[in-house]
Amino acid sequence: MYAKGISSLPPYLFAEIDARKRETEKKGVDIIDFGIGDPDLPTPPHIVEAVCNAAKDPSNHRYPSYEGMLSFREAVATWYKQRKHIKLDAEDEVLTLIGSKEGIAHSAFAFLNPGDIALVPDPAYPVYNNATIMANSTPYSVPLTEEHGFKPDLERIDKGIARKAKIMFLNYPNNPTAATAEKSFFKEVVDFAHDYEIIILHDNPYSELTFDGYKAPSFLAVDSARDVGVEFGSLSKTYNMTGWRIGFVVGNSEIINGLKLVKTNVDSGAFQAVQIAGIAALTGPQDCINQNVEIYKRRRDLLADGLRSSGIELEKPKATFYFWAKVPSGFSSISFSMFLLERTGVVVTPGIGFGEAGEGFVRFSLCVSEERILEACERIKELNI
Length: 385
Ligand SMILES: *Cc1c(COP(=O)(O)O)cnc(C)c1O
Description:
Layout: H1 4-7, H2 13-26, E1 32-33, H3 45-55, H4 70-84, E2 94-97, H5 100-111, E3 117-122, H6 127-134, E4 138-143, H7 159-164, E5 165-170, H8 183-196, E6 199-203, H9 225-228, E7 229-234, E8 247-251, H10 253-266, H11 272-283, H12 287-309, E9 322-326, H13 333-344, E10 346-347, E11 349-350, E12 361-365, H14 370-382
Parallel strand pairs: 1-10, 3-4, 3-5, 5-6, 6-7
Antiparallel strand pairs: 2-8, 7-8, 9-12, 11-12
Bound molecules: pyridoxal-5'-phosphate.
């Protein structure tokens, strides 16, 4: 009944965890959920106010433009200029997205013919792999190993595969590993993309969630990155707006135009009131970002101390709101997740859910209050792992 691309999707491992979580909850266990990467903090009030006002204006009730309001795209360009010192042409180097996930998934349809190869990091956000499969193309796994800083070892990608590959997905600061990349790495990526004529799709939703003075470089900070790729951005994590569905893609205008062609025929743009709220987010006071970062930093430090004192090995992340923690010996990522859930009510995501190379790790997200983090750490400590 289903199309080949849909029938070939891998089983959704997280559904199994979800089912177990609900079962455990039904038994009356108090669940502490480190599983989801979805801010528990509310959207800042000035942004909420902007959407309320815009929603009352009838001129926002009609179809928006496909490429997004020019005023929103200009706000993105200004934000890039101010925060990243990168100049963008709002007319053809910026496109509004209905959340960056939408644009990432549709990219597969813009650039892949059946049988084409996409280079997909492993572990990774599952959309890269699954959108490739839905486009009847072939994901080629590029392992992110601890020895290599959870960055792809470009030298080790088979040359024949590289020559055939059409696109490559990347994501730094990284979900799920919390690894970061420096400009020098992006430079290597740009050279690789030039050599093998590969389109680079850099997914950057955690660009602003950085700690201890660290600043995450934009992929476009590298000269000539704009010849080979684009960068996806999102308001979801930066401004606690996951439910609003608003994001953008910036960079190479020809790549952006390909994505626009798909979108013109699939969706009809993002609700203007939401884009206007997006403008309020991008051009309004930015201290809400620092406040968020401070909150996640406190949570990060509490969780790191708590887990380390229970003998769980992890590195304190410089960015993102995730911990990529080593599974204690004797466990797989699934068995450890199930063990934690059954014995403590603590939910984490098994690394294998992000790809085979994610085995041996679990992901904790920091979308949990300090009080609950302390409670979770106490329960884990009592396990005497
Ligand atoms: C959260 C997340 C996204 C999705 O962001 P939206 O703009 O809400 O669609 C994309 N990529 C990664 C790696 C994420 O973690």
